[in-house]
Amino acid sequence: MAEERCAIGIDLGGTNLRWAVVDATGERRYQDRIDRPHSLAEIVGAIHQGVRACRERFPNVVGAGIAVPGIVQNGIVTSHNLGWQDVPLAPALADLEVPATLLNDMAAGAVGELDFGRARGCRNVIFVTISTGIGAGIILGGDVYRGANGLAGEVGHMVVDLNGLLCGCGRRGCWEMIASGTAHRRRIREAYTSGTWPNLDHEPTPAEVTERAREGDRAARALVLRTARYLGIGVSNLANLYDPQAVIFTGGFARNTWDIIHDYLLNEVREQAFSQNVRLLLTELGDDAGVMGAAAIALRQ
Amino acid sequence: MAEERCAIGIDLGGTNLRWAVVDATGERRYQDRIDRPHSLAEIVGAIHQGVRACRERFPNVVGAGIAVPGIVQNGIVTSHNLGWQDVPLAPALADLEVPATLLNDMAAGAVGELDFGRARGCRNVIFVTISTGIGAGIILGGDVYRGANGLAGEVGHMVVDLNGLLCGCGRRGCWEMIASGTAHRRRIREAYTSGTWPNLDHEPTPAEVTERAREGDRAARALVLRTARYLGIGVSNLANLYDPQAVIFTGGFARNTWDIIHDYLLNEVREQAFSQNVRLLLTELGDDAGVMGAAAIALRQ
User: Fold this and answer.
1) Does B130 fall in a domain?
2) Does B49 touch chain A (CB under 8 A)?
3) Mind listing the pLDDT tens digit for each residue in A88-108?
4) Do A71 and A210 fall within a single domain?
5) What 8-state DSSP symbol labels residue A205?
6) Which residues of A touch B161 (CB under 8 A)?
7) A151 touches chain B (CB under 8 A)
8) Count of alpha carbons within 13 Å of B211, Cβ hemisphere only?
9) Is residue A1, in this structure, part of any structural domain at all?
10) Does residue B18 belong to the interface with chain A, where contact is any CB pair within 8 Å?
11) The pTM is what?
12) Are A141 and A246 members of one domain?
């Protein structure tokens, strides 16, 4: 059997440090995860150890991509999730045994879906995560678009409701204040405490609300579609600004409700955006988008 | 004297058809304009004639760029301003004596400022026109970004106020409904009719309001800064999405009020956007941005 080119994808998350060895066809040859260490020195040590273990099993590894939950600028990382401000991660990894590329985790997810997932064949794609907040990885012309300072794609902090709720960023009416998983959960709580489900002895989780919506509970369905409506406003804005071929969704809300929201959301976007061609797709790689994209970036070098 | 490379820039506007011969340093060697003919055949005829006249004087012309006020997709133009739906302009110009490139007029303006104007040396620039509506040309990585369908940059139809005024596009609270020259004029009218300037015998023009603001009229100044505040919300969104090095402004409102609004607008954007580096600049080429950018595109080929 010929030795195929492969690369190591590393996803440095809030909870786990994950890695995978991925070949050029997108097949995972190996994967593992550990609890994310806390200090920079421990993280760097764990990455070194992981890369060494991978190279022992796969000598044909050509490089490593490392996805981080924050802003990467010239190898320096600032990450709210990791509690990092201007941490020189690239210099700390300079003596890694293979060439390493750092990138933002949303950008990695976008590359993962582009090279190995739902967005194969696309050139212009927005990869949107609907989670605690809303983040995005932007692919334009087949490559990650980072912007002048590595800050492109802060889509959650696009104001869509200028008199709306005050966001942690200081602005009012940021998209994530109405369309994130957090906003959805807030509206579920409001519905529950105002007596929407009198026979229920606890505040339903978003997954329970989705299940109720599937079973025909009108209040639950209205809550899900309300979040979808707010998603539609922001996605239509993105369509009018970036004119992508596709928007790929991930994160809890999208993944839990996709069967309910897809047609509704597509209709909203078709009505609101100039482009009538944009496709709305659900992640194919799920939680692996980041680690796969990190490997893909290394394979692209 | 050595014969320098030069190109013809043509700007097909709502009112005029303008052309200029521009050399690689951005110097205009020749320029002219006529009233815009109405039919496609007449426009094509005028372009042929203009190109022929330019080539007689400048045999070293390498090509022509043609800026049109609409969407260009594979040489087919759709333009509300010209009343065109899917008009095959590129095929109609196939036998032009020099290679011709069609592009949207906002994109042309952006390229003009990039190659010969205020944005020299930038890689990522948004060129925003504040006029009847709000439009933009997008430069990413040094090139025009068109999107998958030539629709990128419809920034005027970014919703920023989801419960706001109904826009002609069918959405509520589009940016141009509050931050365009039209919106500014509407608020001037409201101020006038509600008795803001009891000694004035006519509704003041925007230019008069600007002049009054300069002279210390507080109501006039508040009107100008209110439009600037709404501009700031949209510009901050653009900064969070595209992370450009600069936003270049043109159009009546920006050009008439720049001395009043610049510091205020910059402060708004610094407070609202993640990037603290984005520069806000006024057009250098003014009404010539389109024709200069059309020539620049031809010189780039």
Assistant:
1) yes
2) no
3) 999 999 999 999 999 999 999
4) no
5) P
6) 160-163, 173
7) yes
8) 5
9) no
10) no
11) 0.95
12) yes
